[in-house]
Amino acid sequence: MPKYLLLKRYRGGPEPHRPVPPIDQWAPEDVEAHTAFQHHVSELLESNGEYVDAQALSPARTFVRYGGPDAAPVTTDGPHPETSDLIAGWWIIDVDSHERAVELAAYVSSEPGPGGEPLYEWIDVREVMWERPRTTDPA
Amino acid sequence: MIGEPLAWDEAALRALVPRVLAGLVRRGEDFDAAEDALQEALLEALRVWPEHPPRDAHAWLSTVATRRLVDARRSEAARQRREEAVEAEPRVGGAVIAEEGDDTLFLLFCCCHPELPPASQVALTLRAVGGLTTREIADAFYVPEATMAQRISRAKRALAGPPARRLDQPGDLAVVLRVLYLVYTTGHAGRVDLTGEAIRLARQLTLATEEPEARGLLALMLLNHARLPARFDSEGRIVTLDRQDRGLWDTREIAEGVRVLQSALALERPGRYQIEAAIAALHDDAAGAEETDWPQILAFYDDLVALTDDPVRQDPAAVLGRAVAVGHVRGPAAGLLETDRLREVLGDRHRWHAVRGHLYELDGDLPAAATAYVEAARLATNVAERDHLVRQAARMRAAAARRP
Fold first, then answer.
1. What contacts B308, CB < 8 A, 6 or more positions away?
2. Chain B interface, mutation test: which of A97, A128, A131, A132, most B Cβ atoms within 10 Å?
3. CA distance B40 to B149
4. Beta-carbon separation of A132 and B185 below 8 A
5. Cα separation of B139 and A129, whole Å?
6. Pairwise CB contact (< 8 Å): A130 & B241
7. Does any domain span residue A99?
8. How do B192-193 and B188-189 pair as beta strands?
9. Residue A50: which domain range?
């Protein structure tokens, strides 16, 4: 059964359908409703037998690269932190079809935003590649 | 099946599962509860038997599962529990043994209920008929054990009432065959070899029914599985059929596959698995790639696409396979023309681009082959295949650059 990554971002992706301020500027009850919905999604996936993994990432980041022989790693906070793409977290699901993954992503995107109205957030849907080779020869 | 050999025969234990379960269900137990109870008994057996092997494995499993059932139902006094457990025990025994083949069929029809989603059909089949534990099935599909447990219990809840399906519903058998093939193509991971498990289940199915398509499926699996040792090099890279070391093919498995296929074809009721097995047999039969009987393979593909009214939409994989055969018989340009018909249906799938890369390569159009392989690699959903397609593209580019 195919696995998909449903990726959420702090920033980046297509133009927001509904631009909203950062979550720390929302009303407390809206923040509450938003986080409750995230838990609800994980529970729903678990009870469907579709859950594989869910993680949230801290927005703080460090870019690291090889410094060369006998040199320390080189680090930087990255390019223009206010505009670059920044991943917030993900669900990994195991489902019967791509259609089902899209359906679940749309549900995730209906999460409540300010005023309790849906956020219409863009969710990046990516198929997880199988490590295991297929067991038949290609035609 | 199971990797490490143990002091006692784990495979034999698992083979008992469908018989014991069918016995419980026939006795009037609820399928869902009986399957859960048997899974608990199975885990208990895996724990206890290595040190204390039972004298009668079937009776042991049946008795322990019955106790679990009784425990689960219990909400009354301990005294009553003892009475019921004692009463339940003598009823199990050899009565169901004669119905072994029938049991497998009965349970396959339960587990492959057409209204269940494929993932649930597969999971339930592997547990209730294959005798695998939830943990093993979860490992095979790389999902958490809790997720697989939930999938199985949901599937069982969806099965309302005891299914009493039989072979007079050929549509159901088609679902069973599809589920077993899905188990086969899911392949190998960790401790559980699903290809071996699928072959074992298909073999059991052929003992239970005369249906030629069941034999066709078994033959198809055997004839494909025989090439497995040659399909990857020592680095784990894919070796395509035309480059495989045919000395590595399992001749015993090929012989069995051909025998099973012949017995199916003798019944003169052709179907897709028999035809696909016949194509596999023709590949297996060629001493070298250049000796492949492509005209005969094309004839079988003609039969395969004739099974559906609108093969481009209903069976595009068959049309694509046929395009390769056309390319080898009538020339690559003719093969490419055949793939054009599939652009709308398969144009976003890696396999379509990979086939076109192969046909361009046959045609000597290396830049076009490279472009097609690159696109195929971009769309691949499997790491080994993606790496293979990237190498193919690089090979085409290097060969094109060497040309004067």
1. B314, B315, B318
2. A132
3. 13
4. no
5. 16
6. no
7. yes
8. antiparallel
9. 3-59+83-128
DSSP codes joined into one string, A83-134: TS-EEEEEEEEE-S-HHHHHHHHHHHHT-B-GGG-B-----EEEEPPBSSPP
Take residue B65 and report the two structure tokens written for it: 């599962």
Comparing CA positions, the residue from A50, A42, A3 lying closest to residue B147 is A50
Contact B120 A49 (CB under 8 A): yes
How many Cβ pairs closer than 8 A exist between chain A and B?
Answer: 101
* Chain A residues with CB within 8 Å of chain B CB: 1-3, 46-53, 94-96, 127, 129-139
pLDDT at residue A82, rounded to an integer: 64
Query: CB–CB of A135 and B228 under 8 A?
Result: yes
Q: Do A133 and B119 touch (CB under 8 A)?
A: no
In a domain? residue A7: yes
Residue B334 region by backbone torsions, left for phi larger than 0, else alpha for psi between -120 and 50, else beta: alpha
Confirm whether A134 is domain-assigned.
Answer: no
Rounded distance, CA A40 to CA A117, Å? 17
Residue A20 to chain B, least CA–CA distance (Å):
34
Q: How would you class A43 by CB atoms within 10 Å of its CB: exposed for 0-12, middle for 13-18, buried for 19 or more?
A: exposed
Residue B167: the pLDDT is 36
How many Cβ atoms are within 10 Å of A54's Cβ, its own excluded?
17
- How far, CA to CA in Å, does B210 sit from each of B100, B206, B207, B215, B216? 15, 7, 8, 8, 11
- A135 located within any domain: no
- From the list B355, B342, B327, B289, the residue with the least C-alpha distance to A138 is B355
B44 class by beta-carbon count within 10 Å (0-12 exposed, 13-18 middle, 19+ buried): middle
Judging contacts by C-beta atoms under 8 Å, the chain A residues touching residue B152 are: 49
Residue A3: list chain B partners with CB under 8 A: 142
Coil vs helix vs strand at B192: strand
pLDDT, tens digit, for every residue of B323-336?
Answer: 999 999 999 999 99
Residue type, B361: E
Q: What is the pLDDT of residue B263?
A: 96
CA B129/CA B204 separation, integer angstroms = 10
Q: Which residues of chain B have pLDDT under 70?
A: 1-8, 75-101, 160-171, 188-191
Q: What is the ipTM of this complex?
A: 0.79
Burial, B106: exposed, middle or buried (Cβ in 10 Å; 0-12, 13-18, 19+)?
buried
CATH number, domain with residue A8: 3.30.70.1060
Question: DSSP labels for A29-81?
Answer: HHHHHHHHHHHHHHHHHHHHT-EEEEEE--S---EEE---TT-PPEEE--S-T
Q: Which residues make Cβ contacts (< 8 Å) with residue B212, sequence separation at least 6?
A: B264, B265, B267, B269, B270, B271, B274
Can you tell me the distance from the alpha carbon of B116 to that of B158, in angstroms, rounded to the nearest whole number? 7
Task: Tell me which residue has tokens 């000597």.
Answer: B364
What total number of domains does chain A contain? 1
Q: Which residues of B touch A46 (CB under 8 A)?
A: 146-147, 150
Q: What is the DSSP letter of A16?
A: P
Contact B317 A139 (CB under 8 A): yes
